[in-house]
Amino acid sequence: MTAELPATGAPFDGTPVPAPRLRDRLGTALPWRYVTRRLAGTAALLAVLSVAVFALVRLAPGDPARTLLGARGATPDALAAVRARYRLDEPLAAQYGHWLLDAVRGDLGVSIRTGADVTAVLGDRLALTVELVLLGFAVALLVGLPLGVLAGLRARRTSDRVAQSLGVVALSTPAFAGGLVLIYVFSLLLGWFPAYGTGDGGAGDRLLHLVLPAVTLGLAVTGVLLKLTRAAVIRELAREHVTFARARGVPTRTVLTRYVLRGTVVPVTTGIGLVLAYLLAGTVMVEQVYALPGLGQLLVSSVTFRDVPVVQAEALLIAALICLANLATDLLHPLADPRLRPAQTAPRRAKRQA
């Protein structure tokens, strides 16, 4: 039996070198300075988005005090009381500071329409939207990635043209139109799935009600993943090391799994981050079509009734979820491709000695 070679610079004495621990591997791929910079960038982006959300709602036509007062009599005394309660008589910078500080502490205000706590309202709707997004994401992966790999391997052939045509049709079909077609075929004609709602049974009944909405949401982004995967596969097939491996007679399956698919991880994961952002935005229309009480339906009704606290809180929540998805994508890149790992800086003591 041949002993494992020791690490560079270590004397060879025949003792096997232990494999690096998972913690050491993560530390090499994701140095704490790199992670800290990414977290700081995400926090700065969230701060900018919070300013944009607050400013856009405040710059909307109409008096915020009259909006908060609702259908009640807008007497001068009532308007003054509402302005004092919600600090609308203070400068915009002070209003933003109070709102952001309360949001960080988890206090998102009270709904104008229902009088319920906004944090509790969002918590009740968030679970359904997350389930819908995850199921739609699974549909997009299961359909888009295999079709993209097939189109890349069979580039400029009949199967490639068919796959690309299907992707274009799925991408160009509006969510409400695709949802209505699926409801007509699979609910009214075949009777396989429910047409609307979340059901009143257990987890199985809830999953059955979310099948058609998830398919509608996932098919809308399948074309994006298909195009990205196809382009990445074609680019990797043209690499020199792939050509050399095929010339040596390496089996096609080995070339595909070890070289081609590994090289497509980074561009595909970048596209996945964008797909997650699109899925979060697409839930607004899908939840309206299927009458699902999620964040999308709540946003539409809140904008209709000008429920300012709910609109602000939900816009900030969706922005935070998108930023977290992009952050996760940035942190996955160094783990997937060693070439993208940040360079290890030498210790300061070693630099001084040099």
From TrEMBL:
Pfam hit, one: BPD_transp_1_N
A single cellular component GO annotation: plasma membrane
Gene Ontology MF terms: dipeptide transmembrane transporter activity
Domain ABC transmembrane type-1: 126-329
Location(s), subcellular: Cell membrane
UniProt membrane topology term: Multi-pass membrane protein
Spans traversing the lipid bilayer: 39-60, 132-153, 165-187, 207-226, 265-290, 310-332
Principal location listed in the UniProt entry: membrane
PROSITE patterns xrefs: ABC_TM1
InterPro entries registered for this protein in UniProt: BPD_transp_1_N, MetI-like, MetI-like_sf
Lineage: superkingdom: Bacteria
Keywords in alphabetical order: Cell membrane, Membrane, Transmembrane, Transmembrane helix, Transport
UniProt record similarity statement: Belongs to the binding-protein-dependent transport system permease family.
Protein name: ABC transporter permease
Species for this entry: Streptomyces tabacisoli
Lineage of the species this protein comes from: Bacteria, Bacillati, Actinomycetota, Actinomycetes, Kitasatosporales
